[in-house]
Amino acid sequence: MTGGYLNSQVRHRVTRPIRAFREYIFRDVVPQFANLNERATQVGHEYYQMMISQPVGDDCDGDVSGFAEDAQDQAIGWYEMMRSLHQTMLNLLVAGLFHLTEQQLASLCHDGGFRVRPPKDTNLDVVAKWYSLHLHFDIRTLPTWPLIDELRLLANTVKHGEGKSSLPLKARRPELFYDPSLVRCFPEIDFREYSLNKTVAAPLAGDDVFVSEDLLKQYAEGVGSFFGEIADHFAAHANEDY
């Protein structure tokens, strides 16, 4: 098995799900949460129209102001629910992207052409050690490795909340731990200290960890670059036998 073969495998097989994630998530999934303000207004309007179209009972005094208040409550409740769901989805997607990265990185090790057993699981550290031992390639030296390691910390924080991954991530990316809407509302406040002291309790409920669409896109592009660097390494060793 040569480096040229591994280069081809990484570019055409291993990265196919990564490319699909990058393309279809941002084309078909993320846009479903666009224009929440306008859609919430429509929810309130539809509720109001439904209420005023109801048959008038004998005890009705003709005051529809209560309907307007109820419609506003409906709109606000819908908006808050969808905003939380949007955040939950982004947090889950970033965790999924990391585990997809782990699994695809490990999938190369299962090629039938290798004369050694593949790694025992898809854990990033285990797979990285396998690459170093059997492919003589330390993927932790690649330029994109710090981003992959940050993605690992973030995925673990999303899954487990406060713990050994959230602490270094807070120091590295404190802006992930406070709601960006707070910054827009209170630009004079420095939320860094707040984020360092706040417990990460419910990231899977859309609280405490705030992955943005732009950041998810940066991670997706970074993962693509990571596998591109791996492929480039094997291309540079095209005639080497593994």
Protein topology:
Layout lengths: L2 H12 L1 H14 L6 H17 L12 H43 L16 H11 L10 H16 L5 H7 L7 H6 L6 H6 L15 H24 L6
Shape: elongated
Helix and strand element order: HHHHHHHHHH
- Characterize the largest beta sheet: strand count, sense, and whether it forms a barrel: none
Strand content range: under 5%
Could you say how many structural domains there are in total? 1
Helical proportion? Answer: 55-70%
**Residue runs with pLDDT of under 50 for 5 or more positions:** none
Q: Report how far apart the termini are.
A: 5 Å
Structure class: mainly alpha
Our count of helices gives 10
Instruction: Report the mean per-residue pLDDT as an integer.
Output: 91
Radius of gyration: 24 Å
Number of strands: 0
Structural notes for this entry:
The relative contact order is 0.16. Helices cover 64% and strands 0% of the residues. The protein has one domain (3-53, 65-98, 141-231). It contains ten helices and no strands. The protein is an all-alpha fold and 242 residues long. It has helices at residues 3-14, 16-29, 36-52, 65-107, 124-134, 145-160, 166-172, 180-185, 192-197, 213-236. The mean pLDDT is 91.
Q: Which key features would you list for this structure?
A:
242 residues, 10 helices, 64% helix, single chain, mainly alpha
Q: Quick recap of the structure?
A:
This protein is mainly alpha-helical. It has helices at residues 3-14, 16-29, 36-52, 65-107, 124-134, 145-160, 166-172, 180-185, 192-197, 213-236.
